[in-house]
Amino acid sequence: MKLGIVGKGGVGKTTLSALFAQEYARRGLRVLAIDTDSNPNLAHSLGLNSEQADDIPLLPRSVVVGTGGDGAMTPAELISTYGAVTPSSVTLLHAMRITQAGAG
Amino acid sequence: MRSILGAAIDQEADVTLVDMEAGLEHLSRSGGTLAYADVLLVIMEPSRKSILTAGRTIVLAEELGIPRVYGVGNKAQEGDKEFFEEVCAEYNVPLAGIVPANADVVEADRRGELLALGEGQPVRDAVVSIVDFVDHALVGIIGAH
Questions:
Q1: Number of domains in chain A
Q2: Which domain holds residue A39?
Q3: H/E/C letters for each residue in chain B?
Q4: A12 chain-B contacts, CB cut-off 8 A
Q5: Which residues 43-102 of B have a C-beta within 8 angstroms of A?
Q6: What is the dihedral of CA A16, A27, B80, A6, to 10 degrees?
Q7: Does B131 have pLDDT greater than 80?
Q8: Residues of A in contact with B4 (CB under 8 A)
Q9: What span, in angstroms and rounded, lies between the C-alpha atoms of B5 and A70?
Q10: Among partner residues A15, A35, A78, which is closest to B115 by beta-carbon distance?
Q11: Is residue A20 part of a domain?
Q12: Cβ–Cβ of A23/B127 closer than 8 Å?
């Protein structure tokens, strides 16, 4: 099941994303959370510190939108390569825009 | 290659949750990130600007054919329930739930810390209720693992 969280900046998307993800994990489901914000904060709300958050490799934008890149990796490989497991067992991916990567 | 949000991801995760950046380009027809979403939660707060953004988002989501688009009212104060109900009625989307404004959340955000809310905490109760709402709308999908 794929769940998108959208809304104007500042309405609390990240806060609610973290809470929804943790609630699904609490129910015993395997949860993958993808932060696409150019200034990713979901890591903190899921309990990682800044160092751990910075260590999460950036998922290439092409993989997220499906507009290019090589097709060599399966979803399982992508998750093991780019994913970070957070304390509530939610796996986090960072997928900010390539043009903005490193800008923050 | 296909987006990571294509069908195959469902083999690896029961729930794939995408916290979308602000902006509407992820709802574009050509490879928009959310074209694959089963459910879209449109978060609003009690402000006209957030409501206008929600309205534009809902129109795009329906054009994309996202099957379930629901409103969520966040940071609600007393009396905002009616406000969110009226907005969702106007936009013709179900209101999945209302999350109260809460000092615990503000404090966790200020510190950049884990949002760990205990049972009975009003924000957590609201989140549980919204997840239940989505579950009921998805019978047969989320359980298929």
A1: 1
A2: 29-100
A3: CCCCCCHHHHHCCCEEEEECCCCCHHHCCCCCHHHHCCEEEEEECCCHHHHHHHHHHHHHHHHHCCCEEEEEEEEECCCHHHHHHHHHHHHCCCEEEEEECCHHHHHHHHHCCCCCCCCCCHHHHHHHHHHHHHHHHCCCCCCCC
A4: 43, 45, 74-75, 99, 105
A5: 43-45, 49-50, 53-54, 57, 61, 66, 72, 74-75, 99
A6: 40
A7: yes
A8: 34, 59, 63-64, 66, 75, 78
A9: 16
A10: A15
A11: no
A12: yes
Any domain includes A49: yes
Q: What are the start-end ranges of the H helices in chain A?
A: 13-26, 42-45, 50-54, 61-65, 75-82
Q: For the complex shown, is ipTM > 0.85?
A: yes
- pLDDT over threshold 80, residue B5: no
**From A22-26, A40-44, B18-22, B93-97, the region with the lowest mean pLDDT:** B18-22
Per-domain residue ranges of chain B = 7-137
Q: Is residue A91 part of a domain?
A: yes
A9 inside domain: no
Question: What CATH code is assigned to B7-137?
Answer: 3.40.50.300
B20–A31: do the CB atoms touch at under 8 Å?
no
CA distance B89 to chain A (A): 18
pLDDT band at B48 (very low <50, low <70, confident <90, very high): very high
| Mutation for testing the B interface, residue in A8, A56, A88, A98 having most B CBs under 10 Å | A8
Amino acid making up residue A21: A
Both tokens of residue B79? 């009396």
Are A22 and A73 in contact, with CB atoms under 8 Å apart? no
Place of tokens 């959310």: B34
Closest CA to A56 of A5, A101, A4: A101
